Amino acid sequence: MKSVDVLLCWLIHLAGAHTVGFSHCNKFNNRIYNFKSHTKVDPTLNDLYASQLKSMCPRNVDPRIAIDMDPTTPRAFDNAYFKNLQKGMGLFTSDQVLFMDPRSKPAVEAFASNSKTFHANFVAAITKLGRVGIKNAQNGNIRSDCSII
């Protein structure tokens, strides 16, 4: 297996962490208001979900407003994140593309259909990530905002 394939696998496993947590509206509002000139809403988004996102995050919403990343079971660490991707309910473009891309779609489908498989793979991936080592100001980049380097 090529190293790129291995990295993609770990990425898919770790993306499952989006089954819990929240995001501020300004981190995804480009998908519901200004996606492209010919379509304002990302066409990979489920229509009903896009409407719900618009109601929770209207234009010019208070930047402190945040919504759950998993709209179905936001307080449970489960495989609903992957089931949501199958329905076009990935909050971030980077989430939804995991289902749209033929290289990652089989893993999304496997995790959506089997929570034990997802949990086992997530544990292995997060354990491996934990062995990378702790970064500090001298040997890494500490971010207070993950979107800004």
TrEMBL record:
Signal sequence coordinates: 1-17
EC number: 1.11.1.7
GO biological process: response to oxidative stress
Organism in which the protein naturally occurs: Arachis hypogaea
Sequence positions that bind heme b: 18
Family matches, as InterPro entries: Haem_peroxidase, Haem_peroxidase_sf, Peroxidase_pln
Function comment: Removal of H(2)O(2), oxidation of toxic reductants, biosynthesis and degradation of lignin, suberization, auxin catabolism, response to environmental stresses such as wounding, pathogen attack and oxidative stress. These functions might be dependent on each isozyme/isoform in each plant tissue.
UniProt entry tagged with the keyword Heme: yes
Domain of life: Eukaryota
Name of the protein: peroxidase
Domain Plant heme peroxidase family profile: 1-149
GO terms assigned for molecular function: heme binding; lactoperoxidase activity; metal ion binding
Keywords carried by this UniProt record: Calcium, Disulfide bond, Heme, Iron, Metal-binding, Oxidoreductase, Peroxidase, Signal
Lineage, uppermost ranks: Eukaryota, Viridiplantae, Streptophyta, Embryophyta, Tracheophyta
